[in-house]
Amino acid sequence: MIQLTIIGSGNVAQHLIKAFSTSSLVEIVQAFSRKKEALIHLLEPEKIVTEFSALKKSDLYIISVSDNAIPEVSSQLPFENQLVVHTSGTTSIDVLDSKNRKGVFYPLQTFSKNKAVDFSVIPICLESENEEDYEILETAAKSISNAVFSISSEQRKALHVAAVFVNNFTNHLYQIGQEICEEHQVPFEVLRPLIQETAEKIKTLDPVDAQTGPAKRHDSVTTNAHLDFITNENQKNIYKILTQSIQDNGKKL
Amino acid sequence: MIQLTIIGSGNVAQHLIKAFSTSSLVEIVQAFSRKKEALIHLLEPEKIVTEFSALKKSDLYIISVSDNAIPEVSSQLPFENQLVVHTSGTTSIDVLDSKNRKGVFYPLQTFSKNKAVDFSVIPICLESENEEDYEILETAAKSISNAVFSISSEQRKALHVAAVFVNNFTNHLYQIGQEICEEHQVPFEVLRPLIQETAEKIKTLDPVDAQTGPAKRHDSVTTNAHLDFITNENQKNIYKILTQSIQDNGKKL
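Above: the input entities. Below: the structure tokens describing the complete assembly.
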């Protein structure tokens, strides 16, 4: 049984607490939050501490706070030579204070407050300084997820950038699609199945093989008609750049 | 029972033939293809015709050919005052020859040869010149899909542009994500669940409410670190423009 402490009370911290609460291999010893109320719906009050000095012994401390607070929080921990990890996609393992054994426990997912997540399909990217610590992280990660990967800080950086493209930017394209629908009184409902199918295809096809549309076909009659149709300058600009990028990629293949 | 003829043998035509073959309300009378071999795996040979003059009487003729061939094909049909529709997202109802009753039967989906589709969830956008013809189209459409919409030529234009954003461009962002992974020896597998989750969220959330990430947070430390990390100028450019667009949208709200 791995004794675990969560430090933080944000979105990721809360989802981790929920997920580990159902694990039979992990026991949540405590969680740290500046405000007790933030976690009271998830844990018994006596397990929530508001001072670092109240932290008990654990096998693993997971710091899940905003990226820029990680160095400060890790340096304030009142113990040494324990396994302390952060959950950030963009932050190197090295920002953690060296008085403890360092690691990373990065769940690669987008967590919204309003939407439940199935942790079992969320990839968790692990990094540690030594093999024994990796085993602790792996046991904890595998107890909540079926997709656990060993990923170095450098690889994690690449992954986070790639995730911005496939998640943040993709979602923004959905938003533009919705805006175009609303501008022309078309129900966005009509587009929702296409959004699902676009993602669904990527389960089995490589993106380059799934690419369709006027840009890919070099159908300039259609792409020019679309550019004439779009009135918003920002949307027009995005249309041009992504059309060009699809066509330039096609040339390379 | 609606008597139906399909004119064309491309991706969409073939998917329509497959879908209507399972419908109890529609009978495929014939299909037209320049080359008989193109459809021989889907229909009895005697139902496949290679000359317009061999076309029999039907309640509905669906022209599913490339956009620029629609006017020519519709003018070559050797009959008058029949219901003739096309399946194009970008083409007005008016390109059809006026000797027949015109309409549109546009399945809004991306059809790959290598991937089976479940037609029941594919939105079909219908347009006709009169109510009786609309009823024929609606009966045929509802026999293969649960998502049938009345959409004018103008609305269809908007829909097609929006579809380019949520499908073609989104898929291209997946491709960029994969390229970044490959460049840094990270398995693209790690990102696939995130792609699914990003689409999944849109079943219940509006895109603007689902938006997360450094751009949305105006976290310029992270966005600048990402821009430093990206070496490909095209990727860098797309990153900048979409980050700016997310932030400008945020301001409007």
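Note for the figure: Chain A has a mean pLDDT of 94.
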